[in-house]
């Protein structure tokens, strides 16, 4: 009988500890920029240090998916790099140090918050048309072409101390 109580207590303790450490639905939604299931493709570059990128986002409404796509574009330039599509985009991400996203989590959580500072580095280009795919009853996949201010984004991350300034480290 004592073994059953000990076993039951251990199972309940384990279940309780897992429940505490799990993220709430709101926390998962706020950390949406961490989801790596997006696609990016280079469409060209501009003279002023911008990159034209076609990026895909997911959302319950097409507008939400387009908003998420902008966030994904900036995230890709910072952490993933742009490897597909036309030549000219910077293939390497701005942040190449492993674990930098976790190390500077406070900065990136506020930077990528809804309505955050990342919006000053991205804008939708063209006539605003979107490629829209209905994935299921509750989700859309939307592709938009955006311009990301690569040079300004680099200066911002250098000023924040996330990446070293150009010419440093040699």
Can you describe this structure?
It is a single chain. With 170 residues, this protein is of the alpha+beta class. It has one domain (24-159). It contains 6 helices and 5 strands; from the N terminus they run H-H-E-E-H-H-H-E-E-E-H. Strands 1, 2, 3, 4 and 5 form a 5-stranded antiparallel β-sheet that branches. Strand 4 (131-136) and strand 5 (139-149) form a beta hairpin. The chain is globular, with a radius of gyration of 20 Å.
Q: For the record, give the distance between the C-alpha atoms at the N and C termini, rounded to a whole number.
A: 68 Å
Gyration radius over CA: 20 Å
Q: Describe the largest sheet.
A: 5 strands, antiparallel
Can you tell me the number of structural domains? 1
Fold topology:
Blueprint: H1 2-21, H2 25-30, E1 40-45, E2 50-59, H3 62-80, H4 100-103, H5 105-111, E3 122-124, E4 131-136, E5 139-149, H6 150-159
Antiparallel strand pairs: 1-2, 2-5, 3-5, 4-5
Question: Brief overview, please?
Answer:
With 170 residues, the protein is α+β, with helices and mostly antiparallel strands. The protein contains six helices and five strands; from the N terminus they run H-H-E-E-H-H-H-E-E-E-H.
List keywords for this structure.
single chain, 170 residues, alpha+beta, 5-stranded antiparallel beta sheet, 6 helices, 5 strands, 39% helix
């Amino acid at each position: 009988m004592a073994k059953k109580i000990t076993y039951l207590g251990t199972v309940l303790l384990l279940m309780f500890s897992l429940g505490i450490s799990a993220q709430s639905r709101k926390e998962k939604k706020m950390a949406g920029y961490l989801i790596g299931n997006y696609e990016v493709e280079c469409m060209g570059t501009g003279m002023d240090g911008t990159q034209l990128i076609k990026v895909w986002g997911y959302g319950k409404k097409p507008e939400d998916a387009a908003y998420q796509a902008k966030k994904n574009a900036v995230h890709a330039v910072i952490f993933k790099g742009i490897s597909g599509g036309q030549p000219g985009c910077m293939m390497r991400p701005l942040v190449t140090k492993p674990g930098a996203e976790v190390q500077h989590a406070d900065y990136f959580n506020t930077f990528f918050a809804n309505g955050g500072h990342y919006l000053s580095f991205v804008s939708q280009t063209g006539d605003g048309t979107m490629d829209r795919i209905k994935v299921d009853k509750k989700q859309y996949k939307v592709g938009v072409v955006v311009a990301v201010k690569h040079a300004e984004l680099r200066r911002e991350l250098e000023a924040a101390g996330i990446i070293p300034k150009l010419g440093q480290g040699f």
